[in-house]
Amino acid sequence: DSNPEKNEFLAIYNNTEWETLESGQKIYLKFYDNLVNPLDLWVEFPEGNCYVYQKSSDDGVVEVLDNTKSLLVIKITEDDDADQYALLIVTATNENDLVVILEEYENGELDGRVEYNLDESSINLDDLIICPFPV
Fold first, then answer.
1. What share of the chain is helix, strand, coil (3-state, %, to 5)?
2. What is the pLDDT of residue 13?
3. What is the Rg, in whole angstroms, of the alpha carbon atoms belonging to the chain?
4. What is the C-alpha separation between 112 and 124, in angstroms, rounded?
5. Mean pLDDT in runs of 10 for the chain (135 residues)?
6. Residue 42 burial (CB < 10 Å; 0-12/13-18/19+)?
7. CA gap 35, 32 in Å, rounded
8. 55 burial class (0-12, 13-18, 19+ CB within 10 angstroms)?
9. For residue 126, what are the CA distances in angstroms to 12, 34, 93, 123?
């Protein structure tokens, strides 16, 4: 391959938008070819008819552990506690489907795990209403 960057997940999926429905709640993700802030997240807040928006770097220190053609692994460590972190594992099953596993660790031990499938989204994320804080 003459373009080695295209063998990296974040380069392949740069600026792509994805969606899922989790427990009746719409969730959107957008990936960036950026190791400091590899993704943005919009989570529906049903009572407010709005979305909570955050960058991956809002929750702490972002570390990209794996960024290969079909696998992205991101570790987000809370700023003040190295034993509190989340692992976000994204696997491309084919061009139009991604599987996301979110593992949350407390005191270095697995505290919670969710898995969901993402479909490519055609919504304009700029049109989403962002919730005023506090919601």
1. 15, 60, 30
2. 95
3. 15
4. 31
5. 70 96 91 96 88 90 95 92 92 89 94 94 94 72
6. buried
7. 8
8. middle
9. 22, 20, 27, 9
